[in-house]
Structures are given as structure tokens and as C-alpha cells.
Design a protein that fits this description.
mainly alpha
Length: 318
């Protein structure tokens, strides 16, 4: 009986530790990451390949490095405002969080290097942006811009890894970055609330992005053939119905909580607005992929949304 009791306590201790790390790394938000690289690949008109998978792995590592570093940098602030978080509650030691951030950053850069020099060329400033945001820019006016740049670079990482090019993916990166800028601006008030302007601005951004992604993007032409004539475009024509459906899903996912936060900017509703904005990243990525003519990629990205929503009921994404 005594042995069974000891074993039961050990199982409970491990489960508590796993949950603490899941909270620290905000695992449900992780489902918003693969779509960055896949959307970047779609923008180039090339199907995802093994290098795209390496880019996804790199993105996941760098994203989670930022999550661990975020809590390490905010441990004193969280002790006052969020004492239940893993570090101030003592469930995870600060040194462990910092070590995890370093290890995940190294892993992310190593995976990018495996994907090729163009991918590493994008991953390096991406990692630098993540660390600079968490350690220096988060509480400055430049914070939301840095976060938007990180998400845009993450999309470009997928393009660079897949084809070695990023130019075609720049418009998609700009649109995704604009969404991230809006979400991050709202998040700066999630523990205090009290301001209607950030959610109103985010709502306006959502409306503008919805309108933009419902319009097809120009299809790039392929390389000239042997006779010097332009080849047929490398992407099929865009499925307008799919693009519109995904854009509507994006608008609904982000717009409703933004509206509630604008009408009543209390901390709980502001936090819900941030969570809605984060979850809306997935349908936006899918809509951008459909806009680029990659319908199958769009469907794969969209399928991540219900999975992330399921786990978000257990672990907060904010």
C-alpha cells in the first residue's frame, strides 16, 4: 500500500510538472505556427517539401523559445499580476525557463541551417527579433511592431526554405504581420483593461484584412520556356468559395471578441479578445494560402483550428 501511495504521488507530481510546462509554453498557441511556413510556401507557388517541414520545426522551436523567455523576463511582473503562472508559483524554476529558451533557440537555428542557407538567413534575424522583443522592446511602443516583424519573418522562413526565395511571399507576410500588430497592441492591456481604442483599431484591421484576402492575388508566371515564351502560371486559379469561407471564419473568430472588448474593455474581455486574435491567425493563414491558389494547403492549415481550440479549453493561450 505504501509503495502504491508513493507511486501515485510521483505520477501526480509528473502530471503537475507537465501541465506547468504546457502553461509556460502556451501549447495551444503552437497550432498557429505551422501555418506560417505553409503560407510562405504557398505564396511562392511551390508545393511544400522536406525543407518546408524543417522550416516548420524551426518555427516551432523559435516560437516556444519566445514563450519561455517571455515568462522569464516577466517573472517579477507576473508575481504581482499573475501569481498563478508557472514561474511565480514556483512550479518551474526561472533558470529552467531560461535554459529552455536557449536550447529551443539553438534547435530552431540548427533546423533552419538544415533547410539551407536562405532559410538560416531568415531564421537568424527572426531569433534576434524574438529575444530583443522579450528582453528589451516588449514594454515600449516598438513592442507590437517587433512582434509583427517576427510573425512576418516566420512566414518568409517557409518561403526561403521551400524555394530559396522570399519576394513573392512579402505581401502575405505584410498582411499576417498587420494582424499580429493588432493582436499585440490589444494584449498590452489584457491585465488592466480600460481602453476601447486598441480593440476598435484591431476590429478595423480585421475588416480591412478580410476585404483584402477575399480578392485573388496576381498569379506569378513561371520561368520562360526553351523558346523564350512565358510558361503557364505555376499555380492553379484560386477557389473563390474557399477563400471567402476562410476569410469569413477569420473575421468571425477575431471580430466578435474584439467587439465585446471595445464595448466593455474589462480585463476578462480584453483577454478573450487577445485569445480570439491568436486563434484567428489560423483561418487568416489558410485564407492567404487559398488566395495564393494553394487550396489543399489552405485546408490543411484550417484543420489545425479545431485542434488548437480543443486544447485551449485546458491551457490558456494568453
Amino acid at each position: 500500500m505504501r509503495a502504491e501511495g508513493v507511486e501515485g504521488r510521483e505520477v501526480a507530481r509528473r502530471a503537475t510538472r507537465r501541465r506547468a510546462w504546457a502553461e509556460l509554453l502556451r501549447l495551444p498557441a503552437l497550432f498557429t505556427v505551422p501555418g506560417d511556413a505553409l503560407t510562405g510556401a504557398a505564396a511562392t507557388g511551390v508545393r511544400p517539401n522536406s525543407r518546408t517541414l524543417l522550416a516548420i520545426g524551426s518555427s516551432i522551436c523559435l516560437y516556444e523559445a519566445g514563450m519561455a523567455l517571455n515568462d522569464w523576463a516577466d517573472r517579477e511582473e507576473d508575481a504581482a499580476e499573475r501569481p498563478h503562472r508557472p514561474l511565480p508559483s514556483g512550479r518551474i524554476r526561472p533558470a529552467s525557463a531560461l535554459t529552455a529558451a536557449c536550447a529551443l533557440t539553438a534547435a530552431g537555428l540548427a533546423l533552419a541551417a538544415r533547410a539551407g542557407r536562405p532559410a538560416l538567413t531568415v531564421a537568424t534575424p527572426l531569433a534576434a527579433t524574438v529575444w530583443t522583443y522579450d528582453l528589451a522592446l516588449k514594454h515600449t511602443p516598438a513592442g507590437p511592431v517587433a512582434m509583427a516583424a517576427a510573425r512576418g519573418l516566420d512566414l518568409l522562413l517557409g518561403a526561403a526554405a521551400t524555394t530559396g526565395r522570399t519576394r513573392e511571399a512579402l505581401p502575405s507576410a505584410a498582411l499576417l504581420g498587420s494582424h499580429t500588430l493588432a493582436v499585440t497592441t490589444v494584449s498590452r492591456r489584457e491585465t488592466q483593461g480600460g481602453s476601447t481604442l486598441p480593440p476598435l483599431a484591431a476590429l478595423a484591421t480585421t475588416a480591412l484584412l478580410t476585404r483584402l484576402v477575399t480578392h485573388p492575388s496576381p498569379l506569378p508566371t513561371g520561368q520562360p520556356d526553351a523558346a523564350g515564351r512565358d510558361a503557364v502560371p505555376v499555380r492553379p486559379s484560386v477557389d473563390g468559395a474557399l477563400r471567402t469561407a476562410l476569410a469569413v471564419a477569420y473575421a468571425a473568430t477575431a471580430g466578435r471578441p474584439y467587439t465585446h472588448a471595445a464595448l466593455n474593455p474589462s480585463p476578462p474581455l480584453t483577454q478573450r479578445a487577445v485569445g480570439g486574435g491568436i486563434r484567428a491567425t489560423i483561418p487568416l493563414q489558410a485564407a492567404l494560402s487559398a488566395r495564393a491558389g494553394a487550396g489543399l494547403t489552405a485546408v490543411v492549415i484550417a484543420a489545425l483550428a479545431p485542434i488548437g481550440r480543443k486544447y485551449a479549453r485546458k491551457v490558456s493561450v494568453t
